[in-house]
Amino acid sequence: MLLDDKLIDTVHRLQVATLRVTAEAYERVLPSSVGGEIGTGFALFAGEGSPLTQVFGFAHRTPGDPAEIERFYADRAQNWEVTVTPFTSPETLQALTNLGYRPSHFEGSLAQKIDHLPEPAPFDIDEVGEGDAEWMETTWRGWTGDESGPFQPDDLVRAVAVIRCRRYLARIDGAPAATASLFEFPEGVILGGAATRIPFRGRGLQSALLARRLRDAGQGRLALMGAVPGTTSHRNAQRAGFHPIYSTMVWMRR
Predict the structure, then answer these.
(1) Burial (CB count <10 Å: 0-12, 13-18, 19+), residue 109
(2) Which H/E stretch holds residue 184?
(3) How confident is the model at residue 232 (pLDDT cuts 50, 70, 90)?
(4) Cβ-contact 75, 64 below 8 angstroms
(5) Is the dihedral of CA 148, 153, 155, 158 positive or negative?
């Protein structure tokens, strides 16, 4: 897949749009949450310490003033993430460094034009609605690894349960085992929200959920997903036809 200017800007718009609909969901479940346009990107406050208290798309191919970010989070958070890409303005990167921002970790962006639809996987996979209780609990147990304690949904799980997307629940022998989601926009789709409960890992559930979402997205659509390079998720994505297009880096304010 050729990483030309059109694809670069389309990926940017899709990822910013995903954070925007995430902010809409957070505003429904957490009264103190707030999201807003900032520069060429979007900022979300989802609570102190939340991994979704972040900025994405800021200073995309044009200089931006980090003071806008500082003002947005003033009196709201002590720490937050700013995701930078190879197309973040170099002047802005230097300004972030001068303010004390430091790199935290890499993430990978992958894309494909869906040329052929994968075969249905041999698993029981249902598409479920907003706020589905089994989907919420399976997601929470997959993310936390907690299989014995009572289900205690946090703000993150409650928000993703009502976000504007399609949700999938995979079962093994009738037991809820894994979840995933699909964000749909006019320019393409983003695959996200993967979680597998510990007892069911290593059985190909996420590959099956990936195939189901590609089939539902439809032939000819642009599909995006994120995965840390070198992980099982990254390899599964490549086997499913995704191509690494670039890496992003998450910077922390403190």
Answers:
(1) buried
(2) strand 175-185
(3) confident
(4) no
(5) positive
